[in-house]
Amino acid sequence: DEENLKIDEMLKFFNKQFFDKIKSEMNVADEDLIISHNDLLNGNIMRMGLDNFTLIDYEYMGFNFPGFDIANYCNECMYDYTFPSTPYFNMHKEKRPTGDDLVKLYKLYIIFFEKCKNDVEFKSSISSFSDDETLDKLWNENLEKYEKLLQKYMKLHKYNLIVSHLYWLLWGIVVSKNPKITFDYIEFSWQRYQDILEVLEE
Predict the structure, then answer these.
(1) What is the Cβ-side half-sphere exposure of residue 171, based on CA atoms within 13 angstroms?
(2) Distance from C-alpha of 107 to C-alpha of 52, rounded to nearest angstrom
(3) Which of 95, 99, 101, 160 is nearest to 130 (CA)?
(4) What's the rounded Cα separation, in Å, for the pair 38 and 70?
(5) Does residue 84 have a cis peptide bond before it, meaning omega lies within 30 degrees of 0?
(6) In this structure, what are the phi and psi dihedrals at residue 41, rounded to the nearest 5 degrees?
(7) Handedness of CA 132, 141, 65, 34 (dihedral sign)
């Protein structure tokens, strides 16, 4: 049937040659992998107070590529999971952060990650430096190092978008086997596959 044809096409595309190409392009050594949330989206960011936020749902936490969480967040910004009828989600590609919005996300990510290595108390102020003036001040404190990291993350971003999609695409195929679930996980996986093809062409 149509669903099985879609599954066959997706699984045939993601062969060893594909994975070798992605691995080669990313050029990330095993020792450079970092602990990641691996399911970062708005629904897993909980507001605890006026200026206090925390992440929840660490079910998928583990090692991943640097910047994976930001790419996963960007992908998830495209999805509306409140759609009331089949396939029970909508995809809006124009909502994925790009340009200056994407750069700001990575700047926040880099500053937070680097600062927390040496100062655990810095975590408590994460929500207070998102204004441009404070962000620029923190960025300029270690400008040369941070700019190099930004270039690294921006280079990896395209491939992290693909890896994020692939991660949930395969998950969707597995979950779709549960007959009690009405959410259209095959269409969910198929749309991610289509976006992978578009990202590869960029």
Answers:
(1) 10
(2) 19
(3) 101
(4) 9
(5) no
(6) -155, 170
(7) negative
Max CA-CA distance within the chain? 58
Q: Is 126 exposed, middle or buried (0-12, 13-18, 19+ CB in 10 A)?
A: middle
CA 134 to chain centre: 25
pLDDT in tens, 104-156: 999 999 988 888 877 766 665 556 666 788 889 989 999 999 999 999 999 99
* Residue 66 · residue 36 · CB < 8 Å: no
Pairing mode, strands 62-64 and 34-36: antiparallel
Quickly tell me which residue has 């605890």 as its tokens.
Answer: 48
The DSSP bridge partners found for residue 15 are: none
